[in-house]
Specification:
38% strand, single chain, mainly beta, elongated, 205 residues, four-stranded antiparallel β-sheet, 2 domains
Length: 205
């Protein structure tokens, strides 16, 4: 049991770092608020990493005939931009949203460094429903390293990488598997990626 708590104490330290540095809720680095032009569009757009956007409290009435999430390498919100799939990976016309938090991923080959504006675009009538501009020289969050895991039950790892607000990489995690297994799911980190894990059934949920 001591080994179990050593592992999750270390993960608790990570969560504490995020909260202390960014406040109780960290969504990424703020790009800006969506302009409220048409169909009740509103929300705050954050950069999570190079290719990931998070929209906090996103609202849209769903009444546009052919509305999609768009971004552009140009400054104007127009047909020359490119589509983003919705939070479920669908390329269909977007639905109604009521103060929802959603995560969007830029297409392959595109990064936040490349884009100048994010917007909701109606393809049928060529209308911008709302947008936010990406500031010149905007710096998106990048992976950071914190200390490696150390503890009893042969717990060890290389330095932990904080990828973004939801993701940890724990390279070469080693654990002897002797801590009681029925306590493993007391604490949950949203996403933990373990690289080169060596041990006995550590993630036995």
């Amino acid at each position: 049991m001591a080994g179990f708590w050593a592992v999750f104490a270390a993960l608790g330290i990570f969560l504490g770092i995020i909260e202390n540095c960014h406040g109780a809720q960290y969504f990424g680095k703020l790009i800006g608020k969506l302009s409220e032009l048409h169909h009740g569009v509103s929300g705050e757009v954050y950069a999570v990493d190079a290719r990931t956007l998070y929209i906090k409290d996103f609202t849209y009435d769903g009444q546009g005939p052919a509305a999609y999430f768009y971004a552009s390498v140009y400054k104007a919100a127009d047909k020359n931009g490119f589509r983003l799939r919705d939070e479920n990976g669908s390329g269909e016309v977007i639905r109604r949203y009521r103060k929802e938090g959603i995560t969007l991923t830029l297409p392959e080959g595109k990064t936040i460094h490349n884009i100048k504006i994010f917007y909701l675009w109606c393809e049928e009538f060529a209308v911008n429903f709302g947008d936010t501009k990406v500031a010149k020289n905007f710096e998106y969050p990048r992976p950071q390293k914190i200390e490696a895991l150390k503890g009893v039950h042969s717990i060890s790892s290389d330095n932990i990488v904080i990828v973004d607000a939801q993701t940890l990489l724990i390279p070469n995690l080693s654990y002897d598997g002797e801590a009681p297994g029925n306590y493993y799911n007391i604490l949950t980190v949203t996403i933990v990626t373990v690289i080169g894990y060596r041990g006995n059934d550590f993630f036995n949920f």
